[in-house]
Fold this protein.
Amino acid sequence: MDMPFKIIGNNIKTIRVSKQISQEKLALNAGISTTNLRQIEKGVANPTIQTLSLLSNQLDVSLVDILYSNPEEMKEIETLYKLLQMLPQQQEAAIMNMIQTIINLLFKQNDNERTTLK
């Protein structure tokens, strides 16, 4: 099974290439460095939800398309994201920060479990 960051990176690259957008153009339009985008696409960077949101906006796809290899199974996530976008910006940012914290904790827990199993 691929690591989540590798799936995310592969999804971004696949979408970017299918839309014939260069890494340089996407990075510039999303307001991130080309190096950061390369690391995200390789699955070695831990992008924030905000960065993934910027990339999805520039690629004209939903976050679900970027986050999951099978978006059909994740329609609930897309619905929640749409609801989140309807909130005032300050509330949306606070919730996005909470989600990012939870994701980081889960990845840290998974990394610790994998280390223990070795």
